Amino acid sequence: MSNVVLEKVSRKFGEFAAVNEIDLRVAEGEFVTLLGPSGCGKTTTLRMVAGLEQNTSGRISLGNEVVSDAASGVFVPSERRRLGMVFQSYAIWPHMTVFENVAYPLRVRRRPLAEIRDLVSRSLRLVEMEGFSERPAPALSGGQQQRVAIARALVFEPKVLLLDEPLSNLDAKLRLQMGDEFRAIQRRLGMTTLYVTHDQSEAMALSDRVVVMDWGRIQQVGAPEDIYRYPANRTVAGFFGNPNLLDASVEACARLEGGRVQLDVVGHGWQGRCEAATEVQPGQTVTVMVRPEDIRIAPAGTDKDGLRWSGRIAHTIFRGPTRSIVVEIEDGRLNVDAPAFGGYSVGDNVTVVVPRHAAWAVG
Amino acid sequence: MALSADDRIADIVTARSRLPHVRRFLNGAPASRVVGLTLLALVLAFLSVYPLSMLLYGSLHSTPPGVAGVFTLDGYRDIASQQNLLTLLNTVGIALAKTIPSLILAVLLAWILARTDTPFRGTLEVLVTLPFFIPPILTAMAWGMLGNPQVGLLNQLYQWITGSTASPINVYSYGGVVWHMMQYSVPFLFLLIVDAFRAMDPSLEEAARMCGATRLRTFYTVTLQLMLPALTGAAILSFIRGIENFESPLFFGSPAGIHVITTDIYDSINQRSPPQYQYATAISFVIMALMFLIILMQWRILRGRSFQTVTGKGYSPAVMKLGRWRWATFAFCALFFAVTVVLPVSQLLIGSFFKFFGFYEWEMLTLEHYQAVAGSSEFWRAFGNTMLLGLVGATLTMLLGGIVAYVSVRTKWRGRRLIDAMAWLPWMMPGIVLGVGFLWGFALLPHAIPIYGTIWALLLAYISLGTPLSVRVMSSAYGQLSYDLEECSRVHGAGWLQTMWRIMIALVWPSFAVGWVLIFFGIMRELSASVLLYSVGSEVLSVVLLKLWANGSAEQVSVIGLIMMAMVIVFRWVQLRVIKRWIGAL
Ligand SMILES: Nc1ncnc2c1ncn2[C@@H]1O[C@H](COP(=O)(O)OP(=O)(O)O)[C@@H](O)[C@H]1O
Ligand SMILES: [Mg+2]
Question: B319: which DSSP letter?
Answer without folding.
Answer: P
